[in-house]
Amino acid sequence: MTATTLAAPPQAVPPDRSPSSGREPKPRRKLTPYWLLLPGIAWLVVFFAVPMVYQASTSLQTGSLEEGFKVTWHISTYWDALVEYKWHFVRSFSYAAIATVLCLAVGYPLAYTIAFKANRRWRNVILILVIAPFFTSFLIRTLAWKTILSDGGPVVGALNTLHVLDVTNALGLTSGDRVLATPLAVVCGLTYNFLPFMILPLYTSLERIDPRLHEAAGDLYARPFTTFRKVTFPISLPGVVAGTLLTFIPASGDYINAQLLGSPSEQMVGNGIQKQFLNVLDYPTAAALSFILMALILGMVTVYMRKAGTEELV
């Protein structure tokens, strides 16, 4: 009887061993992502964390420029600064909120037109025109509005002819027949300077919407306004949230527009910080004002984000 020899199946090479040498391969360097993050982390530490700690210590100091400042944990500086500049905070947030609403009212139709109505060539042209003001200094753009809103100019003349100033006078935004050195001038400057920060996120969000959704809504006998209310606007909410944040936050801390277009009665909290730092040389009060402004903005943004109900920012 002949014995049948069965060939043994070939043994598989372990995945963690080299088939040629049988040695363990070198483990992957899992620290590579952290090394790539190191420059950004170092930037944040040097230019954000360290100045924040320094400003925090400054806000708790007492003294004078001649005698020097020492950390005495004088917490009442915060309360004194808040009481003294409470109306500056009110004006800052009021002007910033009005400018944000105006930017949204002007920017959304423009972003909608760029995303859905303009062809590719005109789309690029309009986008270039939107970002073109950034090629000019912020200071020069604001100074130009002094000429635009000057007394006796065509803008003020047109507003008088249309009786728009009668309405703004009733709302307390202007005084008499002039616009310059009034709250309306400050709001106009804020709206113009921060309008691109609203348009670009809105356009990015609207451009992602599939046009076939509008066609489907039309096939279901939805009117254009219903399509916008039920389809377009809900999908574009991330862009609305991002645009309002990018507009409101820098507008709240701005001081250039109030300095050049307003009067002392329209000063914002940024002007108070500038005055304390550069003129009065009261560094603790200026630092306290900066931290109060940051805390208030952070609180309002947190509440706004929860009410908006979206975390997908564009």
Describe the structure using short key phrases.
two-stranded antiparallel sheet, mainly alpha, disordered N terminus, globular, single chain, 314 residues, 14 helices
| Overall body shape | globular
DSSP strand tally: 2
Q: Which ranges are low-confidence, i.e. pLDDT below 50, for 5 or more consecutive residues?
A: 1-6
What Rg do the Cα atoms give? 29 Å
Query: Which sequence of strands runs across the widest sheet?
Result: 1-2
How large is the share of residues in beta strands?
under 5%
Largest sheet: 2 strands, antiparallel
- Kindly report the average pLDDT value: 86
- Give me the strand/helix succession: HEEHHHHHHHHHHHHH
* Share in helix: 55-70%
Count the DSSP helices: 14
Structural class comes to mainly alpha
Explain the overall architecture.
With 314 residues, the protein is an all-alpha fold. It is 68% helix and 3% strand. It has 14 helices and 2 strands. Strands 1-2 form a two-stranded antiparallel sheet. Helix 1 packs across helix 14, helix 3 packs across helix 13 (269-280) and helix 11 packs antiparallel against helix 14 (283-308). The longest helix is centred in the first third of the chain and has 32 residues, at 86-117. The N and C termini lie far apart (80 Å). Residues 1-6 have low confidence and may be disordered.
